[in-house]
């Protein structure tokens, strides 16, 4: 067996390393790329390029002219297939649908078969290539290219340019790593120069097709150089996320360098306009200082009049298991924050009101009641008129005490429900009904499931509601649930519109004197959850309550 020529070894290593690296990249592509179209395209590009380079290794190492020709034809097949894989990948990455269109696929299949037919029959007609043996620097088969080859090559380069156009458009649209893509495009184009030298007769360069090396460099570069940018662009592309949304958006890499911004963010922080590639702390120090220690926080922006408030949140951008950057989102919550503060002030006022009622009014009532009792003890017991007046005053004071207690109850219940949890409606209504029901009363439930609520307050709401139903003559009460409502029906006395208004108004005796607090408490507890409660006055065989939750 003859020893291999150094040039033969060098070329074998060049294409062999290319093949090994491409095949090794397949596993990484399968693991790291989430989008199925992009993953399929890049895996196919790596695999076909690896096969293309492998066939060149075989062509260089075998001595038989017939085997060299076989490996050459197989290499042509793999190379042509790689063009399709390349276009598939670019279309999927750019968010286009060309790779999924049946008409495009059928046209590609037809062209593929026609070109292969011309290639494999070229030994007959010579339109694609012809061969001749060469002995320097080692025995190998020289390929002389025909007009069909140059036509197919021109078409392949044109299609490759289309793919690059799609990629550059995607990168340009998001300002993401366009420079890295340019470098990779340059690496992919290097073999064109070697091809030109080879077919121009430049001595040291063999007449081989060096494109597998360039395509391999590009494909691997996508995984190991621009991988993070690729995935981030796909998931957070400009067309979907940036200038079309009202929220401010800033995308940074793992080093907190600005990779992209939108108009809303640049309006708030003008330094972002010319800050692509710069550290966030340098381009927009005011924003950097506001970054939350945890995932989000509300910030005040005092450079506007009136002061605006934003929810500033950070979201990790990932590629597989690796973090490739962060998205900073600024959502205007001025109106929400204003409402929150209004509610907070209102609750503070309720606290003060409750304290005033509890301490001032109750103490005053107690003082008056005590003085009435002292006066009554000193009066002539035979003066019936005075005794009646004292009794009336005492009853009035007692009534005032009850009103104060009612007001305190409504005040406490009117605060926002904050202990929200998943509550089983069936369990709550059954507990509430058993607490107030008489032996002849009956409860049924239909399609009850779960709601988000304060368990204790919800049970209290149903207790008051069921108590009203029973006082209103009901013997049977049913509870049903829909995706947005709770419906409570009974067989009690129907209520007119005027009855409903009076029943929900504090102090009204509907249906009897002791029912005045029941429905006001129901409405108060519902509103504390952000719910609404109404009565269907068109029902003539009972009362129908509807709670919108």
What proportion strand? Answer: 15-25%
Global mean pLDDT: 79
**Count of DSSP-assigned helices:** 19
Low-confidence stretches: 226-237
Notes on the protein architecture:
The chain has helices at 6-32, 36-61, 65-93, 102-120, 122-125, 147-174, 178-199, 211-224, 227-235, 238-241, 263-268, 280-283, 285-290, 334-378, 384-413, 425-436, 455-471, 497-503, 518-528, and strands at 129-134, 140-145, 248-253, 258-261, 296-301, 308-319, 322-332, 421-424, 442-446, 450-453, 476-481, 485-490, 532-535, 544-548. It is of the alpha+beta class and 549 residues long. The protein has 4 domains: 6-234, Rhodopsin 7-helix transmembrane proteins (Rhopdopsin 7-helix transmembrane proteins), CATH 1.20.1070.10; 240-332, PAS domain (Beta-Lactamase, 2-Layer Sandwich); 337-413; 421-548, 2-Layer Sandwich (Heat Shock Protein 90), CATH 3.30.565. The strands form 4 sheets. A 5-stranded antiparallel β-sheet has the order 4-3-7-6-5. A 5-stranded mixed β-sheet has the order 9-11-12-14-13, covered by helices on one side. A two-stranded antiparallel sheet has the order 1-2. A hairpin with a 5-residue loop joins strand 1 (129-134) and strand 2.
């Amino acid at each position: 067996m003859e020893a291999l020529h150094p040039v033969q070894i060098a070329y074998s290593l060049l294409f062999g390393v290319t093949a090994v690296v491409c095949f090794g990249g397949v596993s990484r592509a399968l693991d790291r790329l989430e989008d199925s179209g992009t993953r399929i395209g890049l895996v196919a590009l790596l695999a076909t390029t690896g096969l293309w380079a492998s066939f060149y290794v075989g062509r260089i190492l075998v001595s038989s002219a017939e085997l060299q020709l076989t490996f050459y034809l197989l290499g042509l097949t793999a190379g042509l297939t790689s063009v399709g894989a390349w276009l598939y990948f670019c279309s999927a990455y750019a968010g286009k649908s060309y790779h999924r269109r049946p008409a495009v696929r059928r046209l590609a299949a037809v062209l593929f078969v026609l070109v292969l037919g011309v290639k494999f029959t070229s030994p007959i007609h010579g339109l694609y290539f012809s061969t001749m043996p060469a002995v320097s620097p080692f025995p190998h088969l020289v390929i002389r290219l025909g007009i069909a080859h140059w036509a197919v090559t021109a078409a392949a380069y044109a299609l490759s340019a289309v793919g690059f156009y799609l990629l550059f458009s995607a990168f340009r649209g998001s300002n993401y790593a366009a420079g890295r893509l340019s470098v990779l495009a340059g690496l992919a184009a290097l073999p064109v120069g070697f091809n030109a030298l080879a077919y121009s007769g430049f001595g040291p360069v063999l007449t081989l097709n060096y494109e597998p090396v360039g395509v391999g460099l590009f494909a691997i570069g996508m995984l190991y150089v621009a991988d993070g940018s690729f995935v981030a662009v796909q998931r957070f592309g400009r067309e979907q996320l940036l200038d079309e949304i009202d929220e401010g958006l800033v995308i940074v890499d793992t080093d907190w360098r600005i990779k992209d911004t939108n108009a809303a963010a640049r309006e708030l922080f003008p330094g972002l306009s010319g800050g692509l590639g710069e550290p966030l702390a340098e381009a927009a120090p005011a924003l950097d200082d506001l970054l939350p220690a945890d995932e989000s926080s509300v910030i005040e922006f005092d450079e506007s009049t009136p002061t605006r408030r934003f929810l500033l949140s950070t979201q990790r951008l990932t590629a597989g298991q690796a973090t490739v950057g962060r998205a900073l989102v600024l959502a205007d919550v001025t109106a929400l924050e204003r409402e929150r503060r209004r509610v907070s002030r209102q609750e503070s006022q309720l606290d003060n009101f409750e304290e005033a009622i509890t301490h001032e009014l109750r103490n005053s009532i107690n003082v008056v009641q005590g003085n009435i009792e002292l006066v009554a003890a000193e009066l002539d017991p035979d003066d019936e008129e005075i005794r009646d007046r004292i009794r009336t005053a005492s009853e009035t004071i007692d009534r005032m005490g009850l009103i104060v207690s009612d007001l305190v109850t409504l005040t406490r219940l009117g605060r926002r429900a904050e202990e929200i949890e998943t509550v089983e409606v069936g369990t709550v209504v059954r507990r509430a009904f058993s607490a107030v029901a008489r032996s002849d009363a009956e409860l049924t439930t239909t399609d009850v499931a779960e709601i988000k609520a304060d368990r204790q307050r919800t049970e209290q709401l149903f207790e008051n509601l069921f108590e009203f139903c029973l006082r209103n003559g009901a013997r049977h009460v049913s509870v049903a649930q829909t995706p947005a409502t709770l419906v409570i029906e009974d067989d009690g006395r129907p209520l007119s519109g005027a009855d409903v208004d009076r029943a929900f108004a504090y102090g009204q005796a509907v249906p009897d004197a002791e029912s005045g607090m029941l429905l006001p408490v129901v409405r108060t507890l519902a509103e504390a959850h952000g719910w609404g409660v109404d009565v269907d006055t068109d029902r003539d065989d009972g009362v129908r309550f509807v709670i919108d939750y």
